[in-house]
Sequence to fold (239 residues):
Amino acid sequence: MSKQTIERILQSQGFGTRKWCANLLAEGEVSLNGEVITDDRAKFETDALEFSVYGESWLYREHIYIALNKPTDYECSRKPSHHPGVLSLLPEQFTNRDVQPVGRLDHDTTGLLLMSDDGSFIHKQSSPKHHVPKVYIATTHAQVTSQLVAQLLKGVKLNDEPAPLAAVLCEQLGEHQLKIVLEQGKYHQVKRMLAAADNHCTALSRTQIGALKLDELNLAEGEWCYLKANQLAMLKPLK
Ligand code: URA
Fold:
């Protein structure tokens, strides 16, 4: 339990600098339980606190954990150069709170992307020691063959990688489509593995991380949702 001034609460939730938040209050843009709060020194319990800014309701969150259904042609970088950044799909406050992607998907990869402002969560999820399987559906230029599947399961040598990298699971889904499950998250890993096996990835989508399935989140492309505790608990190695 912790009580904080409303000005501090607004600032922590990404509504701007202290001065900006004090102005929001002075202008009567912030309310709590239907009551407009203008006193920037007023203190409130943050647990389960609901407040509204410009008439829009928000729940106080110490940290933010999000799943985004990433569309193609969005960059995961914080300073995107050729396409809009994924942060532009989220409320502006989230950028102020330093929400960032957990690992990266290429600009042309679609699907499940986790985002958070919790540094230790991001670090843990991105750590090579944390063997969380990630499921991808890849479309290939050349036909998928049983040799290709066998090669990806056995491991392929990539430049800059000391040891061959293997899929933990690989399954043909169609003539030009396969499901590939990886536990590492190396740069362009699926595309480079397919290229190393003499094929070429023409489209890529991530459909699952740990036991969390994009399908079950019911998100249209470009939509996001907060992750609940039970969903966060799914982001771990599968036994
Ligand atoms: N592997 C890739 O090649 N690209 C991605 O975006 C994710 C995994």
